[in-house]
Amino acid sequence: MTGVWPLVRLALRRDRIMIPVWIAAFVLMTVTSVAGTVSLYPDAASRIAASASINNVPSMVALYGRIYDPASLGALSMIKMDGLGTAFVAVLCLLLAVRHTRAEEETGRLELIGATVVGRYAALTASLIVAVGTSLVLGVVTALTLVACGLPAAGSFAFGAAWMGAGIAFAGIGVLAAQLTRGARAANAIGTTALGAVYLIRAVGDSRGPEWLSWLSPIGLSQQIRPFAGDRWWVFLILAGAAAVLSAGAYALHGRRDLGTGLLPDRAGTAHAGLLLHGPLGLAWRLQRGSMLGWGAAFLVLGAVCGSIAQNIGNLASTPQTKALFEALGGQQGLTNAFIAAELSIGGLIAAAYGVQAAMRLHSEETALHMESVLATGVGRVRWALSHLIVVGLGCTALLTAMGLGATFTDGRDLIGAALAQLPAALVLVGITVAAFGFLPRFTALGWAALVAFLFIGELGPLLRLSQWVMDLSPFAHLPKLPGGVVSATPLVWLSVVAIGFAAAGLVAFRRRDMA
Amino acid sequence: MTDAISASGLVKSFGRTRALDGLDLMVSTGEVHGFLGPNGSGKTTTLRILLGLLRSDAGTVRLLGGDPWRDATSLHRRLAYVPGEVALWPNLTGGEVIDLLARLRGGLNTKRRDDLLARFDLDPTKKARAYSKGNRQKVALIAALAADVELLLLDEPTSGLDPLMEAEFRACVEQERGRGRTVLLSSHILSEVEALCDRVSIIRDGKVVDTGTLPQLRHLTRTSITAELAGPPNGLSTLPGVHDLDVQGDRVHLEVDSDKLDAVLASLTSTGVRSLTSQPPTLEELFLHHYAVRS
């Protein structure tokens, strides 16, 4: 364990901006959620009604989880933070865990460090300390914020523990994934796939049952702490145990492998390039196909699961109140449609996340000096960039088609068109990423910032009673609610024009600027 | 003879750092030109401007008769480049990278590729992430040398190569010269430049401080002379151009500016010379001469 503390300090030095910004964003989200809920639902009666409108709508339960005490201000305020917020906490800890282990190893920096006086497990330990420490600080700061907002202290700290529990569980998943692959990109992909899977398991467990499914998911367990609605502290111990087991697995694997290797040995490849590896488009396809196929499979499963949950939704409406609400929402068909539309819009957001990530490949190819080699052979800049963008555009289309196809299998209706209606909004995010790449290459991550901002506007906008024009900034606000809604071509065309406009401006700027 | 590369007054700043500060560089068609300078002197920046990857802030530059920024694509078909820092796609094999780069340029000479693979003793089936630094360098070299082009831009091409491979590289450059190709070889390995290059440009702090053939450059510097004389020397210390004079009895060691050699030799022979060794300045001394000024 020699050398752990210097490595922890190195990691904190490198992340001295990133971690505080993330924590500040989480605090901001919790404060706005509480403030919005207090002003919208001032008394217990209005809160019970609002809670019922979530607990009785399966798509809401699948998306966010249940409110276990309908009268509780805290439970209602934090419902979205319990669901999507917890997923973001998981992402943060996952990224931190991989960033200071596999990413360091892949770039060769760990070799430089490993040659100094540090133990074999020092980097792994330091990375866990940083990720767990960040979860702890985030949990405490969030709890104090909630107390400051006037919520009960016990519930506030239970909520902090819920976030911290999800965080440490995903720190464990992150360090374990980092042992399996040779590349940090692939380790992050394994981690996010795991996150998607456990979120889906929780969604099925909460909305359709059986209920014990949610107890298999770290996200579900985090919600089962039930902050402001019972404060079941002991559930945190399950999450801590899971984190310990996952980390122990990482230590065991780490001790059995060589520096720089993953679990699978490298096989020899072909001595000659295949027919497809021809020209910049062939190269872009080769570089992006792995992640695209992985995401595509995940989308197919996501669509199939959503379609199958939707089929059984009507059965949940058992009490007279829920039956009345059920009818008000349009009966079986209306509820099923609303559910599928909600899930498809989540698919649209994830497809946009894929698009941003895939378009950022432009930037990583440039900084890794791969672009230099390609451009020096007589490929024009725009042709090189467009090759990647064609693959990204096709990728977004393929993912949404896969989701629609999956839902079509289990629902029976043709839902591919409904899924593809999400495409223009996802492409706007790709366009924004390309514009950032062209004008401000060091800030290509602005694509992520835009996606988070649109998500924030969409989720918390109604709660904060933002003006309509602010809500309209988000491309996702202009999409039709399909199936069941009315389709108008105008917004879809406009969104496409905006996407192409951003991308074109970015490419023009890229053509005129220096290589970064 | 026309110039393959002609740059004059190139200026390039990155923020407050002035990477190039009025750089002039002329490379004639068909010559092997050494581009010599220490780390951080602006060699790579110059090459990236020649490739149109960076745009100069001031100055003019012509490459193979075109404008490297505006005509980048068409010019690149006529040149091949070995970057100073070879970055390969980790999940592609070396063979795939070589084929890909050739196809991107517009065609592959399979025979030449296989010949070079054998000469550099490279296994093309390994994934790039499994290659050592030297083997990554070989991939980039083979990709460049297999290309049928007029101009080779090589940025420290032998870094990481073992001495056997370095010798193979030199043989390849000699062959390229025989084919009439132009080579711009950026390096700080003096023996390599001395062995290969027709002309040399020395860059310091973003400026070319000296350029010419090696004999021309040597002319500007000192020759070192060690002599055993018939008697004690007289008057040597008063001669112009004599430096570091060291007299021990009849033995003399001195450095003399090359254009003041006549007077020194006359003075030595007037005393009577028993033995004499003289050494022309090595490139290393040239180099140190130019860089000593800075410190």
How far apart are the termini of chain B? 38 Å
Shape of chain A: globular
Number of helices of chain B: 10
Question: What value does the Rg of chain A take, in angstroms?
Answer: 23 Å
Q: Largest sheet of chain B, described in full?
A: 6 strands, mixed
Which CATH class of the largest domain in chain B?
Alpha Beta
Distance between the termini of chain A: 39 Å
Beta-strand portion of chain B reads 25-35%
Report the major sheet of chain A: none
Number of strands of chain B: 13
CATH homologous superfamily classification of the largest domain in chain B: P-loop containing nucleotide triphosphate hydrolases
Output the number of helix runs of chain A: 24
The chain-level mean pLDDT of chain A equals: 91
- SSE pattern of chain A, N- to C-terminal: HHHHHHHHHHHHHHHHHHHHHHHH
Q: Portion of residues in helices of chain B?
A: 25-40%
CATH architecture of the largest domain in chain B: 3-Layer(aba) Sandwich
Question: Which pair has the most extensive contact?
Answer: A-B, 34 and 41 residues
Radius of gyration of chain B, Cα only, in angstroms? Answer: 23 Å
Characterization of this structure:
The complex is a heterodimer of chains A (516) and B (295). Chain A has helices at 4-14, 18-40, 44-55, 58-64, 73-77, 79-99, 102-107, 109-114, 122-148, 153-180, 184-207, 218-224, 234-255, 279-311, 320-328, 331-359, 361-367, 370-375, 381-411, 416-420, 423-439, 446-464, 468-471, 489-512. Chain A is mainly alpha-helical. Chain A has two domains: 1-263, no CATH class; 277-516, no CATH class. Chain A is globular. The relative contact order of chain A is 0.09. The longest helix of chain B has 16 residues, at 163-178. Chain B contains ten helices and 13 strands. A six-stranded mixed beta sheet of chain B has the order 5-6-7-3-8-9, with helices on both faces. Chain B has a four-stranded antiparallel beta sheet with strand order 11-12-10-13, covered by helices on one side. In chain B, a hairpin with a 2-residue loop joins strand 8 and strand 9. The interface between A and B is large, with 34 and 41 residues.
